[in-house]
Amino acid sequence: MIVTATLSRSTFTGLRCKECGHPYEAGARHVCEDVCFGPLEVVYDYEAIRNRVSRATIEAGPASIWRYRDFLPIEGDPIDVGTGFTPLLKANNLAKRLGLKNLYIKNDGVNMPTLSFKDRVVSVALTRARELGFTTVSCASTGNLANSTAAIAAHAGLDCCVFIPSDLELGKVLGTLIYNPTLMAVKGNYDQVNRLCSEVANTYGWGFVNINLRPYYSEGSKTLGYEVIEQLGWQLPDHIVAPLASGSLFTKIRKGFDEFIKVGLVDEKHVRFSGAQAEGCSPIAQAFAEGRDFITPVKPNTIAKSIAIGNPADGPYAIDIANKTRGNIAAVNDTEIIEGIKLLAETEGVFTETAGGTTIAVLKKLVEQGKINPDESTVAYITGNGLKTTEAIVDSIGAPYTIEAQLDSFNAAWQQAQAALKG
Amino acid sequence: MAVQILIPTPLQKFTNDEASVDLEATSVDALIDALEGRYPGIKGRLCDEGGKLRRFLNVYVNSEDIRFLDNQATALSDGDEVSIVPAVAGG
What we know:
The complex is a heterodimer.
Chain A: E1 12-17, E2 23-24, E3 40-44, H1 46-52, H2 55-59, E4 88-90, H3 92-98, E5 103-107, H4 118-131, E6 136-140, H5 144-156, E7 159-165, H6 170-177, E8 182-186, H7 190-204, E9 207-208, H8 214-219, H9 222-231, E10 239-243, H10 248-262, E11 272-278, H11 283-289, H12 315-324, E12 329-332, H13 334-348, H14 354-368, E13 378-382, H15 407-422
Parallel strand pairs in A: 5-13, 6-7, 6-9, 7-8, 10-11, 10-13, 11-12
Antiparallel strand pairs in A: 1-2, 1-3, 4-5
Chain B: E1 2-6, E2 20-24, H1 28-38, H2 42-46, E3 57-61, E4 64-65, E5 81-86
Parallel strand pairs in B: 1-5
Antiparallel strand pairs in B: 1-2, 3-4, 3-5
């Protein structure tokens, strides 16, 4: 008989409450149910990771988030749909326009398969869902997460039922339905959708990526930290700017940076963290401005629907990080968000959605306020694709010149176009 | 003054696995005390030592977050539905 030695590939050992430290087994649970209801986090054996990974082993891995699999909470084979390893652009034109010298755009608007950073978290969550024995997966979503959950569930052969607010952009609704999940459009805002889903999760035994699978799901965002380090030539940036919805992404980019320092993959460095919100839903920015460490929920009213979370679960942690790193959290209005979308498109050829417009507008604001030093190497995280939210900009961009298929007609229109440019 | 309370899974070990219980209470604070009276120990999970609801718990009265109402002083009336929901991530 041939006995094959099997070496456990998993480097995580369980879950632990982020607030009180109470330990839990690595099942489908997300809150500290025995003590304080704080959020649970995955616990890793960093000694094991340190012994196993090097820059060379990572560079030899797949061109996806799974090159970092030793830092992710899965046991077996991942669901690899090519998620991650998106471009990091040196944004010289935008930098010049803003008065910066060293600006980069991390473009998750071209992430695979559904063009937002959510593919990272969902790839991890559904891999873990399968390991935990779930056959139906679900989520509460502002749109991007629904797209991603439906797509990756289809690929993985999992049944899928997702919940969204009923007023979402058409692109986000179509971009979910095409994968043929059951789609529930709930009459209410995201926070109401989330409350409903918590109640459904209590009774239906499904794997909700952002509820009972949340500790695994949220770890996927760390890869946005790892990739930037690797793409900067194994260096940390000086400053990052990212959008804030629930605040989870922001905290996980930081965790990604900290973990690479901890296992010796990159030298320690102080990185400033700044967050971006839309004024019409800015509970974290408001708390930051007022020096509070707690969040007062708000009712969202903004075109930036993908980040319109009025009751952000990780808001207090995001404020803590901005304060500790001497970063900032700022909000911009809907007009500034649209200008941000256009500015990024016109200077760098990147068409982002409203969340990205928010990030660029806040980047601009912080530079104007002297809160980002022109010499700092700064990374702005673009988390989603503009083709999903065309409603937001349709009235704010130009129109085509409709002409006859004749040179005269073109000549006349060209003169008009030149005049318009000068005008 | 019967009020229906939806109990999240992690707290159902206190309520004999009941996902929904009916109680008499005129405010959220009174409701927490009434729950404690029927299911001793549950208040220690819901509230910190000062009796304040834990910050990672959301409480809704008829789907409205009590932070938009009068927080723990929010009045309850006959037929109200109160749900207790641990905070979740999102997007």
